[in-house]
Amino acid sequence: MPQEESTVVKCKIYRSEDVDNIWERQGFKKGEIEERVKAVVMLRGETLPNSYKMIVEAIYEFPKKDKAAQLGLVNRHGLITRVHYASPFKGTLQPGDVILQVNNTNVSFDDRAAVAEDKTGSLQSKVKAPEKKSGEKKDRPASLSSGYPDFKSVVSKVMNSKTESKVTITVARLKNRVGTFKCPAGVVATHGYQMDMALVYQYKYLKLGLNMQQTGPKVVVNYTVPDTVTHISLNIGEAILAVDEHSVSNLEEVRQRILDGCNTNGWVRLIVEYPNTDPIRNLVRGQLATASKATDRPPYYMCGDVKKYCDEGIEALKNGKELESVLKETETKESDRKEVEKKKSARKANKKDTLVEFRKTTEEVGIPSEWNSKLFVVLPPLKTKETEMGTDTSQMKK
Hints:
By secondary structure, the chain is α+β, with helices and mostly antiparallel strands.
């Protein structure tokens, strides 16, 4: 049975535990999904286990007001390369997903209309691309999807329809984490750390985007560039202990093992470990800060609207000009102003102000999946006179 996640966008994940091969689905030709994935992921050599294959259905129900004009998905030949920060599918779909259907309609992708590769400033992989045969056209992956309607036209039809109440995007996904695995020889679990297996694939239109640092005898992930291969699979603060069942202990060995695995199979298995207590997380963070220089950090790009206001602010500071207010107050009629004053007076009389209200207890929320770091720590609550005197019970929860 599919697992459902409670998010703004409903998500159903179908895994191979339910059937022998989850990529053999009704509505598709035999082997079609496999071929569509191989058109954008360089799988070769060792056969990919069926347990690594998934199908994801992301369902976005249109709101009654302020319906999104676009889905915010950037793709190349069906491979999602970026999910826009304002997309309703942010946190549900991810780079590396291969689009198969829209509202149960199989879709194809016009190569001439494919979105150009997004330049995120990520690190370039040295992985070799498969050799092309003579006369083969460049950048036109083979596909069994010819004859299906174009993805953009199907999406446009759904978004402009007055009867459609939702849009469902069905994608093929490759598993990037395996909880149960055989530990290779020479790899020993460290006290205070948790071990895991990460899977890194060679995508045609995604770069590697990995920066590592040597901290003592371990190679630790320093950062990963957004919308790249390793940003999907790895987390900041994870130490890479083994690559494809070979234990590793230095940067050059890790790099070479990853390149060899991708050149052979198009994917690699990484045994990683990460701290599971706050003191050790702080220790690893300090080790990374010592090992890396400030100039070695990646250029993180701001959203377009935020960058606009920042540029205006910097320019105003240079020239000594006063910035235009971001808050645009609309002119109110005298009758409207009196109505507002009347409501304020009524609230004061009832001693109820519904506009501002503070919660008496705090709530813990999960860390978004895009914040791929294993070094987050829980901060203690702020100290007050009541907490120090032992008289405050508002933070206590059963």
